[in-house]
Amino acid sequence: MAIQRMDNVAIVVDDLDAAVVFFTELGMELEGRAQIEGRYADRTVGLDGVRSDIAMMRTPDGHSKLELTKYHAPAVSDAEPRNPPPNTLGLHRVMFAVDDIDDTIARLRAHGAELLGEVAQYENIFRLCYLRGPAGIIVALAEQIG
Questions:
Q1: Cα separation of 32 and 26, whole Å?
Q2: Contacts of 143 (CB under 8 A, 6+ apart)
Q3: Could you give the maximum distance between any two Cα atoms of the chain, in Å?
Q4: What average pLDDT does the structure give for the chain?
Q5: Range name among 8-22, 73-87, 95-109 with the lowest pLDDT average
Q6: Does 91 or 141 have the greater pLDDT score?
Q7: Cβ count within 10 A of residue 23
């Protein structure tokens, strides 16, 4: 038996509305919002008393999704360090293909994004960069140029 697809990647954020705005500015579409709580939620995630709000964001092609989650209970556990470097064990980054990397960076900076390094070119194929996005996650951008 094989998997059918990767359904989504979940990101825990402290400001759900700001994260929705950030990823909407990136070009994702809000698919829906929901409140999550109850025994099934507790049993699924292995925590007691789960109460959260989620926003499901979809890429324009409809093939990829991000689940943005704001926990109200239990209290959020802060990652240490708060903004880990790219070589930290665990989820490394989420990458998006974009049409215009410079325009995308400018629009995301207005929502708090910060470049980790600079826009670099890989041969004559891609322009690439890493940004720090909502909740300290690393968002990578790739613009195909060749």
A1: 17
A2: 97, 98, 99, 100, 101, 126, 127, 128
A3: 53
A4: 92
A5: 73-87
A6: 141
A7: 26
What number of residues does the chain have? 146
Task: Provide the token pair at 78.
Answer: 């802060």
Name the residue with tokens 């990458």. Answer: 95
pLDDT of res. 133: 92
Q: What is the DSSP string of 65-113?
A: EEEEEEEEESPPPPPSSSS--TTSSS---EEEE-S-HHHHHHHHHTTT-
Distance, in Å, from the CA atom of 28 to the CA atom of 67, rounded to the nearest integer, reads 12
Specify the pLDDT at position 76. 86
DSSP single-letter state for residue 146: -
Tokens of 133: 């996005």
What is the C-alpha to C-alpha distance for residues 134 and 125, in angstroms, rounded to an integer? 28
At 131 the pLDDT is 95
